[in-house]
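HUMAN: I'm a chemist; might I ask for a sequence paired with its structure tokens?

ASSISTANT:
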Amino acid sequence: SSVLDEAKALLARRGIEAQLIEAIGDPATEILAAAEKQETDTIVVGRTQRRHLAHGPLDSRLVRAARADVLIVP
């Protein structure tokens, strides 16, 4: 997506290497799996009020389950 490409370029200009990974499935599960596979230091996500029917907001789920730091931006 162009928004993600713009974000990656902005981070690169600031010396931060970002890796964008496309995945299909439950967002929290996929993000956590990708973070583990890549041995990620930090996961950055936007705050959301959307709730997964059974599990709650994505940002809260990541904070509870991630081994990496989780940065939530508004």
